[in-house]
Amino acid sequence: MVDFRAELGKPFAGQVAALRLRLGNLAPTTSWDDLQRNQHDSAFMVAGAMKVDLLADIMAALQRAAAEGTGLEQFRKDWAAAVERHDWHGWTGETTAKGRAWRTRIVYQTNMAVSYAAGRLAQLRDGNFPLWVYLHGGSREPRIDHLSWHGWAGPPDHPFWLTHYSPNGWGCTCRVRGARSAAGVRRLGGDPDKKLPDNWAMIDPKTGAQIGIDKGWDYMPGATVADTIRKITEKAVNWDYSLSTAYMKDLPDSTRDAFSRGYRDTPSLAVEMRRWSERVMGERNGAPIDPKVVVAPQKSLGLATSAQKAELSGLLQQDLGSDLYDFTIDTSAVRHVMDGHTNEAIERSRGQRVLRPDDFGRLGALINAPDKIEPADSVAWGGPRLRFEKQFEDGKLVALFELRRGRRRLSLVTMWVEV
After folding, report:
1. CB distance 115 to 142 below 8 Å
2. What is the pLDDT of residues 107-129, one digit of tens each?
3. Strand duo 298-303 + 326-330: pairing
4. What distance, in Å, lies between the first and last C-alpha atoms of the chain?
5. Tens-place pLDDT, residues 332-357
6. Contact, 180 vs 190, CB < 8 A?
7. pTM attached to this predicted model
8. What is the DSSP letter of 5?
9. Do residues 216 and 33 lie in contact, with contact meaning Cβ atoms separated by under 8 Å?
10. Smallest Cα–Cα separation from 114: which of 45, 50, 190?
């Protein structure tokens, strides 16, 4: 079945699952072709990136782009923060603005395109379409060979798809859609009577791939993991607004922890938390927000790491076991915080300052590197609470998280800034 949310620019669960699968094998490499063809289905690499933690941070940025639509420009900021954090130098493109723009665009577009294609392949197979249709992406500078395949429809087991399933080159924006009849092919813009060019299977000696396909792209992205992607998306819940724990439990602790820390470290998360809190309160920079804007009911701040779970278990004097716990914040918490800490006179009398939307953007840094964590007073109707503190330049951020064991969450209940 077709996931129309993907067509509307909303999170596509199959794409998010395809990216997450690759977390299971963060592969340090020196060259772009160290991994070949379907090896990319279940491994993640960035040419020249030799540190697993660096790869986890870059993957976290890509994951946010897929799940929350943060886009290329925000990915570039996340990339810059990651390479600086891990002191990575000497990567191709680093020395000039043009080179950095080119490299980040290649990494972003390639991973978005391949993961989307893998998710779409799982859908196509699940939908049991008798015909698949090759559609050109509409590039301003189309590749002649790709145009020659546009509109052709063939059965899923046709050998064409094993090598030509898109994307089949750097920057390729072609796509494949499913149809149930000749009329369906026409509705998609295809031609059920079209024949493939005679040379479609000929090998280009320069690339070792079929004519019109870039070197190393003569494979079907996602073919080896399509069934797994389908199973992940069946189990996953709340993809739109939560860092779902689907598949994460199967990862090594070190990989899961690096990804969770990297997720909280991405500048895009801080930006999104600020913007989301503004939407929750109904205004941005003092101007009302369109009430038709859909506001996610909660946001994830990533999973607690293994070390954090061990520390929290000791502070709470209860074993959290092997379950994964998500740091979360919901709309009611945002409203409670802002309603209680935005009166300047009252906050001054408490030795605090008025809370601002950008303070929500600091929660990732607070969780990753708190100055202090200690048990806090709980309420009769809630779970045990923990107090996190972190000093920033303009004050000390204090946040209380409540353990909600049944939901496996550490949920924000309130926060303030002491000055």
Report:
1. no
2. 999 999 999 999 999 999 999 99
3. antiparallel
4. 55
5. 999 999 999 999 999 999 999 999 99
6. no
7. 0.84
8. H
9. yes
10. 45
